């Protein structure tokens, strides 16, 4: 395991790159905010399908709300070079709820604090229609929102973080709260003990873990049942199939898939010669020029299946996830209402057993090149919490 990373450095690196190129790229995203190319069918279907994360019922497709300050001031920016104004972010969330989405994902680290504020504002008057999930665990100063080095899951810090979330999200309870990354300095028993107390107090209803080590899941679950694991999972990154998904199956834990579109790669709009600038993908090995060219074979698979199923590539990528287990729920992120609506259409795409075998074989046949994250971020995943006592 490499030394404990400094998330501030990682995030500020991304932000610096983003800011320096923001003006140029603001006008250069493929389609204007709020619009997307016309999708083939099925699209714009309200999502009525429901799934269970343990005993928590949610729409089969959720919505990720991960934005940092954009420009002009007051605006929002995602990690992939798209800018939107705050009103568009709010409209996107409200439209998603209107279309049947009941799982809204965010985190105090997104901004920090900014995304929770946008979600809280968007959910005014419709809060009770959704399962609201957020995450704590980075070392964020509760007063200033400044991201300090390291992680922080000390019980007193968790309590302060939850109070801040409730305020920003304008609610008296959170439906699902995740530890964003395992704190290598805190026994998981102490973290879950605190979360269990918060459940008793009614401030949170369920808890989960994001990118934890396998033994940490078992230990947490022994203290209080884990409702969901939130890990990266997509056709582009299938690591959870090794140990985490079988463990979720064994223990009856739900699975929420982050970056289900492979950070946009599976949407089909990225060309082999694309150079990422002002974009998190600029520092991710699997999107480096040679790896990107090799990995386009996966996009070819997705596009082929999209043609066969009269769907869009993004819909195929999401439908593939839904087909893996009935308790997997993807939370695609987007800056465009039309993409959000298109993504919901994935819930209507089904694979016959024969198609499932074939599409899995097609995905298996592609050998993805390059790591899914830079080493400093990756080293925070799969971490086991220290033993208690
Ligand atoms: N637990 C964790 O550590 C963690 C880490 C990362 C993310 N997350 C959560 O997971 C959510 C999703 O992850 P993500 O945003 O990193 O990756 P993602 O959902 O795999 O990809 C987002 C990208 O896909 C594009 N996209 C969305 N719908 C599309 C469509 N129909 N066609 C073409 N392109 C489409 C978006 O561009 P447009 O804006 O142009 O649509 C955006 O660039 C986040 O919002 C966050 O809530 C959690």
UniProtKB/TrEMBL annotation:
It comes from the Bacteria. Residues 1-38 form the signal peptide. CDD domains: AKR_AKR13C1_2. Residues 83-360 form the NADP-dependent oxidoreductase domain. SUPFAM superfamilies: NAD(P)-linked oxidoreductase. Keywords: Oxidoreductase, Signal. The keyword Cytoplasm does not apply. This is Aldo/keto reductase. The lineage of its organism: Bacteria, Pseudomonadati, Pseudomonadota, Alphaproteobacteria, Acetobacterales.
């Amino acid at each position: 395991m490499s030394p404990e990373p400094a998330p501030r450095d990682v995030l500020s690196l991304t932000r610096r790159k983003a800011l320096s190129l923001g003006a140029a790229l603001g006008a250069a995203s493929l389609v204007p905010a709020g619009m997307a190319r016309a999708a083939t069918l099925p699209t714009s279907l309200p999502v009525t399908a429901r799934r269970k994360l343990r005993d928590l019922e949610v729409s089969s497709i959720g919505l990720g709300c991960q934005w940092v300050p954009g420009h002009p001031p007051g605006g929002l920016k995602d990690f992939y070079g798209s800018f939107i104004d705050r009103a568009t972010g709010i409209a996107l969330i409200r439209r998603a709820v209107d279309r049947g989405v009941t799982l809204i994902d965010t985190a105090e680290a997104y901004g920090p604090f900014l995304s929770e504020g946008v979600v809280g504002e968007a959910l005014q008057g419709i809060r009770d229609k959704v399962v609201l999930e957020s995450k704590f665990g980075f070392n964020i100063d509760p007063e200033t929102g400044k991201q300090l080095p390291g992680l922080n899951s000390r019980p007193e810090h968790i309590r302060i973080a939850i109070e801040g979330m409730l305020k920003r999200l304008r609610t008296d309870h959170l439906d699902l709260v995740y530890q964003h990354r395992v704190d290598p300095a805190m026994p998981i028993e102490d973290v879950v003990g605190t979360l269990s107390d918060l459940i008793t107090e009614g401030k949170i209803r369920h808890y989960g873990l994001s990118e934890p080590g396998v033994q940490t899941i078992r230990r947490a679950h022994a203290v209080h049942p884990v409702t969901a694991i939130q890990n990266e999972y997509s056709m582009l990154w299938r690591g959870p199939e090794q140990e985490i998904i079988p463990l979720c199956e064994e223990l009856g834990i739900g699975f929420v898939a982050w970056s289900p579109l492979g950070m946009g790669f599976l949407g089909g709009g990225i060309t082999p010669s694309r150079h990422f600038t002002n974009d998190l993908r600029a520092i991710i090995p699997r999107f480096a020029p040679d790896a990107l060219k090799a990995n386009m074979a996966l996009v070819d698979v997705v596009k082929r299946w999209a043609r066969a199923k009269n769907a869009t590539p993004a819909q195929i990528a999401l439908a593939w996830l839904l087909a893996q287990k009935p308790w997997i729920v993807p939370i695609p992120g987007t800056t465009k209402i039309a993409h959000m609506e298109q993504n919901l259409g994935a819930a209507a795409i089904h694979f016959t057993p024969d198609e499932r075998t074939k599409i899995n074989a097609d995905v298996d046949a592609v050998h993805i090149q390059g790591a899914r994250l830079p080493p400093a971020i990756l080293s925070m995943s799969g971490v086991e919490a220290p033993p208690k006592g």
